[in-house]
Amino acid sequence: MCINCGCAPTEGAHNHHHHDHDHGARTLRIEEDLLAKNDRLAAGNRAQFAAAGVFVLNLVSSPGSGKTTLLERTLRELGTKWRFAVLEGDQQTSLDADRIAAPGVPVRQINTGAGCHLDAHMVGHGVENFDLPGTDLLLIENVGNLVCPASFDLGEDHKVALLSVTEGEDKPLKYPQMFRAAALMIITKTDLLPYVDFDVERCKAFARQVNPKIEILELSCRSGEGLAEWYGWLEEGVKRKQEPRAESQE
Ligand SMILES: Nc1nc2c(ncn2[C@@H]2O[C@H](COP(=O)(O)OP(=O)(O)O)[C@@H](O)[C@H]2O)c(=O)[nH]1
Ligand SMILES: [Mg+2]
């Protein structure tokens, strides 16, 4: 377990000062226990979401990449088409949950305190008061952090990694675990491209280098460019998730 943040890094990470081998072995065991427990709880969440036919996304990025802005815009434009629910993760404050407050959309804030990621246990409790069978899409905004949330399965269908053009195109290479864990990378704030040295094609190539299967969208919540493709991606996911239920109801 990482002594600094209390979370469990994986492969290759963890070059802290474990000169003592026994201590290292014990640390590894605790990490495995922690992740195994999280995976069990995540499987429970996933079963619950599948039974309810809810499409669940776990939005991950560094702080400020535009997660809340994208949620706000999506709810504003699709909030009458589908039934949404939102979980907002942050260390402190309910600022993001307050921003999200949209008529008829249940929003729940989860404060992690010193914790740098959401885990399956928090999400399981977070959705307790949601009407899941009456929900099409559950959007989870994770704590802003490109490292730790990669290791924690919440029971989501997909992790979606946002990367804004002000962050540099090398981030998929620097934080490969996150981009490997994500099904979709969204390059955000494309309206700012004229002002920054961000090479979109290189960024895409880096992302595909660490995850050949990753899907990629580019959008701007300011100009609206690319939002239609994002909505299309969401729609496909919702339909796919609801198909098995629609068939069994025939
Ligand atoms: N220019 C521009 N700014 C954006 C865009 N999306 C978000 N922002 C700004 O980026 C900052 C951080 O956004 P926020 O949604 O809070 O990021 P989060 O920390 O990932 O939730 C805010 O000042 C937003 O207004 C965009 O598409 N274009
Ligand atoms: Mg936010």
Order of helices and strands: HEHEHEHEEHHEHEH
The count of strands amounts to: 7
Unreliable spans: 1-5, 9-16
Q: Given the C-alpha coordinates, what overall shape results?
A: globular
Question: What is the fold named in CATH at topology level?
Answer: Rossmann fold
Q: How many distinct helices?
A: 8
- Can you name the CATH architecture? 3-Layer(aba) Sandwich
Q: Considering DSSP H and I runs of 4 or more, what fraction of the residues is helical?
A: 40-55%
CATH level-4 homologous superfamily: P-loop containing nucleotide triphosphate hydrolases
Bound compounds: guanosine-5'-diphosphate, magnesium ion
Query: What's the end-to-end separation, in Å?
Result: 49 Å
**What is the strand content?**
15-25%
By secondary-structure content and strand pairing, the structural class works out as alpha/beta
| Total domains | 1
Order of adjacent strands in the largest pleated sheet: 3-2-4-1-5-6-7
CATH class: Alpha Beta
What is the average per-residue confidence, as pLDDT, rounded to a whole number?
91
Radius of gyration: 18 Å
| Main pleated sheet | 7 strands, parallel
Written overview of the protein:
The chain has 250 residues and is an alpha/beta fold. It has a single domain (21-249), classed as P-loop containing nucleotide triphosphate hydrolases (Rossmann fold, 3-Layer(aba) Sandwich), CATH 3.40.50.300. Helices cover 40% and strands 16% of the residues. The chain contains eight helices and seven strands, in the order αβαβαβαββααβαβα. It has helices at 21-52, 67-78, 95-100, 120-126, 171-174, 176-181, 200-210, 227-249; strands at residues 55-60, 84-90, 107-111, 137-141, 158-164, 182-188, 215-218. It has a seven-stranded parallel beta sheet, with helices on both faces. Strand 2, helix 3 (95-100) and strand 3 form a beta-alpha-beta unit. It is globular and about 50 Å long. The structure holds guanosine-5'-diphosphate and magnesium ion (MG). Magnesium ion binds at residues 67-68, 96, 141. Residues 61, 63-69, 144, 188-189, 191-192, 220-222 line the site of guanosine-5'-diphosphate (GDP).
